[in-house]
Amino acid sequence: MDPELEAFLPLFPRAELSDPVAARTKFAELAAAVPAPDTSGMEIEDRTVPAEPDVPVRIYRPHRAQGAVVWLHGGGFVMGTVDTEHPWAARIAESSGAVVISVGYRLAPEHPFPAALDDAWAVLAWTVGHAAELGVDPERIAVGGHSAGGGLAAGVALRARDEQGPPIRFQLLSQPGLDDRQETWSARNFTDTPWMTRDKVTAAWRHYLGSAPATPYAAPARAADLSGLPPAYVSTAEFCPNRDEDIAYALRLLQAGVPVELHQWPGTFHGSQAILSADVSQRQNAELGGALRRALAG
């Protein structure tokens, strides 16, 4: 493991999702300790997207933005809000120069699949329809997210392709949760890795799916056909249960003719980019913004 990250391991809480309410409290405490970047070069606004039910969003508008990303937070489908995501959504906006629409989607287990996906879909449609108001080109709209949010972004991209929905320019997938089956080597063997373990992944999928069978929109790795999807940036962490399913998904996208940039970060673990003092974390966060900037400007 990267020595700068390893030094912080005693400070990380145990990976636990058996009690969603307690997990949300701890998640919020961790997020509150992360310093936010300089937001003086952007406007920040809380809005509500009309839907059934309405979806809260926080919009970050850098000056002279050309495109936008519908950004979906991590948290195992169980944790996270636009408040806990603020340090990361603001960083994406600052480093990419894109408008970021951070989505406060409904959480499991109170709201299992497809609630979160429906919320993300409603915000995507709203973003495209309000591109002029947001000051961006409607042909330069991306979807993205971290962990569970990355899986949601991939599911939205599949749905948009299948339903001839709003055009998506790019997928920004950071350590996404894509496969509920947990059959890869990393999913089977990483039982005691920091922050994310096999048991925590199992609990996240149980909460998210409820009693419903998994579909490709819930677990995108189940999709038989990945052709016709938007270009993607996929990033993985070496010591993460999601690692191998993410690499396999990137390879399948390539084999289906989809342009992909795949970055496997050695010495890292799931979510370790939150340790901002580490050089590798700084590079990870810069790469996410850089990939989005290139995709929306090209």
From TrEMBL:
The keyword Membrane does not apply. Pfam families: Abhydrolase_3. The keyword Methyltransferase does not apply. GO terms for molecular function: hydrolase activity. Keywords: Hydrolase. SUPFAM superfamilies: alpha/beta-Hydrolases. InterPro entries: AB_hydrolase_3, AB_hydrolase_fold, GDXG_lipolytic_enzyme. Residues 69-272 form the Alpha/beta hydrolase fold-3 domain. This is Acetyl esterase/lipase.
